[in-house]
Structure formats: structure tokens, C-alpha cells
């Protein structure tokens, strides 16, 4: 239990931010899973468009402070690498 008004406000802010961050991370995981499913199924064109959307969401999460910017960059790089490998294997 916070003793000061500023500490009480901070508790409220932390709870609100935690909910926002969890929602963003959940959305990211869902989008990433869909992208990986498209890669696994060999849908190269769909995977390329999804990669653009996932990259945008990663950048937005990094800008908002949900993810560290290097984490977002690393995830984008790994996903792009997988999409490109699938495209090369398919010959597109």
C-alpha cells in the first residue's frame, strides 16, 4: 500500500501501462505466429505482405517503449531472413 499520493498515482500508472504492454505483446505474438504459419505453408506472397505489417507493429512497440528497439530490430531481422529463405527456396 503506497504511503504517498505520488506513489499511489505511480501504482495506477504502472497497472495501466502493464495492461497496454501486455495487449501490444499479445497482438505481436499473434501476428508473428500467423506470419510463421504462412512461411511454413509456403505462401511467399502472403508472408511478404505480413512481414511488412509485423515490422511496422514491432517498430511501433519499440517507439512506445513496450519493446527495446534492438529487440524489435532483431526480431524483424530474423523474420525477414526466414521469409527470404522461403522465397529463395520457392524460386520467387
Walkthrough of the structure:
By secondary structure, the protein is mainly α. It has one domain (5-90): Methane Monooxygenase Hydroxylase, Chain G, domain 1 (Up-down Bundle), CATH 1.20.58. The protein contains three helices and no strands. Helix 1 runs antiparallel to helix 2 (44-64) and helix 2 (44-64) runs antiparallel to helix 3. The longest helix has 37 residues, at 5-41. The radius of gyration is 18 Å and the shape is elongated. The mean pLDDT is 96.
Give a topology summary.
Layout: H1 5-41, H2 44-64, H3 69-90
Structural features:
92 residues; Methane Monooxygenase Hydroxylase, Chain G, domain 1; elongated
Offer a quick outline of the entry.
87% of the residues lie in helices and 0% in strands. The chain has 92 residues and is an all-alpha fold.
Amino acid at each position: 500500500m503506497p504511503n504517498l499520493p505520488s506513489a499511489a498515482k505511480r501504482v495506477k500508472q504502472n497497472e495501466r501501462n502493464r495492461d497496454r504492454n501486455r495487449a501490444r505483446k499479445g497482438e505481436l505474438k499473434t501476428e508473428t505466429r500467423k506470419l510463421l504459419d504462412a512461411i511454413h505453408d509456403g505462401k511467399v506472397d502472403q508472408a511478404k505482405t505480413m512481414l511488412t505489417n509485423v515490422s511496422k507493429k514491432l517498430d511501433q512497440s519499440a517507439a512506445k517503449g513496450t519493446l527495446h528497439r534492438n529487440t524489435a530490430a532483431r526480431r524483424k531481422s530474423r523474420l525477414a531472413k526466414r521469409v527470404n529463405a522461403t522465397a529463395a527456396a520457392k524460386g520467387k
